[in-house]
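Subject: design request, 291 residues
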């Protein structure tokens, strides 16, 4: 893995990915990772690289995943409706697969340019490697949804919204949601959301029916990325020289006149004592002259 980051507009989280397998989701979001912030130009990807990023193994299974995923991508639409108007839009204008050449050519639809290319605010981001390592499709979808609120650390879903977004069978009872939906979500997402918990929101009416679910976790810190933030500054060590500074042609003597006079007095004393020692053959220590 190379630390690839998935990033897209939050609107994509409202699209229900019905009947998608975990491998098909991995393939789709790997494509989005490579296509983000690339504009509306045609993009050509190597299927072997996509396979590596999508954590897929076994060649025949990978080609089967591509084939089934592309069919579902073709059916993946965004429905927008107002009081007197509605429209259906597809995410990709072009999505062409060549299994012989091992290439995939895509072109993002102009209507969805903002989904991948204009991501200054209201976006969801997460590590592709984390997403592809999650096995349960329920956990994968909830991972994406909670990442939208990663810095808040809390998100509530009504029972109806949870069933719609996760595409659970309508016949699921609360006990089945606990066992088949919430249990794998908590188990597989706990490594990525510290202190992840889910609490049932119940009605005060008779029987205390479940109205919704509240997910909580420790909020992630949000800060700007600073390259080499933790690198210590390097300083060049100055080379030492035995050459006295006064030998420099630009040297300026800053010694005061009083100090010069004192040095001259000590110099004359030292010369006098040297002359005296030579006359009387008295041994003299150099430290005598420095008192």
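Subject: RE: design request

Done. Sequence follows.
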């Amino acid at each position: 893995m190379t630390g690839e980051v998935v990033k897209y507009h939050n609107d994509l989280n409202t699209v229900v990915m019905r009947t998608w397998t975990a491998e098909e989701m991995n393939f789709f979001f790997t494509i989005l990772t490579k296509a983000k912030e690339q504009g509306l130009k045609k993009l050509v990807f190597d299927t072997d690289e996509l396979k590596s990023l999508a954590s897929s193994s076994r060649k025949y299974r990978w080609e089967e995943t591509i084939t089934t995923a592309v069919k579902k991508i073709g059916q993946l639409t965004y429905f927008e409706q107002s009081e007197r108007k509605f429209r259906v839009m597809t995410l990709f204008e072009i999505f062409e697969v060549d299994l012989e050449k091992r290439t995939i050519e895509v072109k993002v639809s102009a209507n969805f340019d903002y989904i991948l290319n204009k991501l200054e605010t209201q976006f969801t981001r997460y590590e592709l490697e984390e997403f592809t390592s999650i096995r349960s499709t329920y956990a994968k979808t909830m991972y994406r949804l909670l990442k939208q609120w990663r810095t808040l650390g809390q998100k509530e879903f009504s029972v109806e919204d949870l069933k719609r977004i996760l595409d659970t069978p309508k016949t699921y009872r609360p006990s089945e949601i606990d066992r088949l939906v919430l249990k794998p979500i908590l188990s597989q997402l706990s490594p990525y959301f510290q202190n992840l918990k889910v609490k049932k929101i119940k009605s005060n009416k008779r029987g205390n029916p479940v109205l919704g679910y509240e997910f909580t976790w420790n909020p992630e810190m949000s800060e700007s990325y600073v390259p080499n933030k933790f690198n210590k500054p390097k300083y060049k060590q100055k080379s030492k020289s035995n050459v006295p500074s006064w030998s420099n042609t630009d040297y300026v003597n800053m010694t005061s006149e009083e100090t010069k006079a004192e040095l001259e007095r000590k110099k004359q004393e030292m010369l006098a004592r040297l002359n005296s020692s030579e006359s009387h053959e008295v041994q003299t220590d150099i430290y005598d002259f420095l008192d």
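Confidence is low (pLDDT under 50) at residues 224-236.
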